[in-house]
Amino acid sequence: MSFTVAALYRFVEIPDPAALRDRLQAVAEAGGVKGTLLVAGEGINGTIAGTDDAVEAVLAALAAEPAFGGRDGLELKYSTAAAMPFGRLKVKVKPEIVTIGDAAADPTRRVGTYVAPEDWNALIADPDVVVLDTRNDFEVRMGRFEGAANPEIERFSEFPAYVDRALDPVRQRRVAMYCTGGIRCEKASALLLARGFDEVFHLKGGILAYLEQVPEAESRWRGDCFVFDERVALGHGLAERPGPRERDAGLQKDEP
Length: 256
What we know:
By secondary structure, the chain is of the alpha/beta class. The chain contains 8 helices and 13 strands. The strands form 4 sheets. It has a 5-stranded mixed sheet, with helices on one face. A 4-stranded parallel sheet has the order 6-10-9-7. A two-stranded antiparallel sheet has the order 8-11. A hairpin with a 2-residue loop joins β2 and β3. α1 runs antiparallel to α2 (52-63). The longest helix is centred in the first third of the chain and has 14 residues, at 17-30. The two termini are 26 Å apart. Mean pLDDT is 88; it is low at 243-256. Keywords: Oxidoreductase, tRNA processing.
């Protein structure tokens, strides 16, 4: 038996996060879905796994919420797992769906320019573009795009300090960034725009969309993509890449 895995997020104003948490938890538990969903006033983020029908029930419940008004705008990626990749279900209310700790990073107001996976190679080949990996150091060392800078952070909340320390909107006028599924780049791009950077681009759907859509023969990705479940890593076509579970303490405290 294989399991459907759905990674999802959306930045949208949710008036009552606790009530949404309760409704989603009830639907997920009824279908035996496992994984993590984070709910905040700014939106939802998470990865869940279960049977096709059970995962679909959770997504349908989410789409039926007035705040969402359907699936339009929901960043959603499917993959499969040979075994259940999560030990339990966690549906939590958080201050942020991905923690950066800087109010200037508000994707509900402004984000960078989305770049489709098929256009990403041409953008990062431009010598005037600074390519920036917004993930933590463990993830970057597992795999990255050719020529991408590693901020060497342990968790995403350290990213604003890295920007203030290492980047300059006068010298680095064009910045292209990426992350696992796209959510961290939403906040990172909003932060850079607030800091005065003119041209900020981010990979739509993140590394997962790129690995799913870009043929391996044309790829500029090197290594594996770490994912926050027991599959450890994914490769091209979102195929499982099993390996040792070498997660340091800093990584365990970070969110996808």
